[in-house]
Specification:
Blueprint lengths: L7 E9 L4 E9 L3 E10 L10 E6 L3 E8 L4 E7 L2 H4 L9 E6 L4 H26 L1
């Protein structure tokens, strides 16, 4: 079992409600799951805000986590196996949640990507060993 890993990654997503709303939040890593804490705000006036929401995603519900960066934008993608989890995050589509990450958080995003993918692999290995 790995030691606790404490990193947080601020994110934004403008895919909510066909671009009419923006999601802002923080992704936290915990030992057996990750947590998305977020607020939804309308994109037009920025006046209407939801209360803070919290979505817990167990590592067994994740296929992969990938950090992609290019010249203009950096994204942190969570490929999720659970439709019920996807329905709880505004703007989730095609089985994934895509989060925009500022480039200054590149190091945190890369660390989180490595850690979570390692935890996913460990859990899959544990499940395989249990079946033998």
């Amino acid at each position: 079992m790995m030691q606790p890993f404490e990193k947080a990654l601020p994110f934004k997503s403008d895919d909510a409600y066909h671009g009419l709303a923006e999601v802002q939040g923080i992704l936290h890593i915990e030992n057996d799951h990750l947590v998305l804490e977020f607020q939804v705000q309308d994109s037009i006036f920025g006046a209407l805000k939801s209360g803070p929401k919290r979505l817990r995603v167990n590592y067994v519900d994740l296929s992969t986590v990938k950090y992609r960066k290019n010249w203009f934008i950096s994204r942190f993608d969570l490929k999720i196996n659970s439709l019920s989890l996807l329905s709880k995050f505004p703007g989730a589509k095609d089985g994934r949640i895509s989060l925009k990450v500022k480039r200054r958080f590149k190091s945190e995003a890369e660390d989180i990507e490595s850690y979570v993918n390692l935890r996913i692999a460990e859990l899959k290995l544990e499940l395989l060993e249990g079946e033998v």
